[in-house]
Amino acid sequence: MQFSTEHLSRCIQTLESSLVQLRRAPAGSIDYEVYRNAAVKGFELTLETAGKLLRKAVKSYTGNPRAVDELTFKDVLRHSAKHGLMDAAAVERWFAYRDNRNSTAHDYGEGFAEETLGLMPAFTEDSRRIENTLRDRFGHADT
Predict the structure, then answer these.
(1) Host H or E run for residue 72
(2) Which tens digit of pLDDT belongs to each residue from 75-126?
(3) 131 lies in a domain?
(4) Helix axis angle, 88-104 to 110-138, nearest 10°
(5) Any idea what the CATH number is for the domain that residue 100 is in?
(6) Which helix (H) or strand (E) segment is 26 a member of?
(7) In whole angstroms, what is the distance from residue 124 CA to residue 111 CA?
């Protein structure tokens, strides 16, 4: 199976660019809020995109791809580890990212946004690692 990781790569690049601009913006300024919001949304989009690609990858290991469609996000992560797409420690970090993402639907406060930003260094590294693993394992061509 081959599929493209280009969209995931672009999501990661956009997130990283938002974080660079955020660090340059004066705290408390409108620019800071704009880039913080962009980073939080970039986090959400990157997380969802990585999850969709992992789900697609896990389907290649099963005789019943429809069963994979029924898996929760966290189950997709567990199956990803089972098939060597990530290690157990990464799965635990991705659980935390997902839990944080689920909270963004209910809490858009400043404190929560700052908490999400604290995840960004590890999250961008983990996202890059997944993108590289999927590209290396499954190729880069569109299907």
Answers:
(1) none
(2) 999 999 999 999 999 999 999 999 988 765 545 566 778 888 999 999 999 9
(3) yes
(4) 140
(5) 1.20.120.330
(6) none
(7) 20
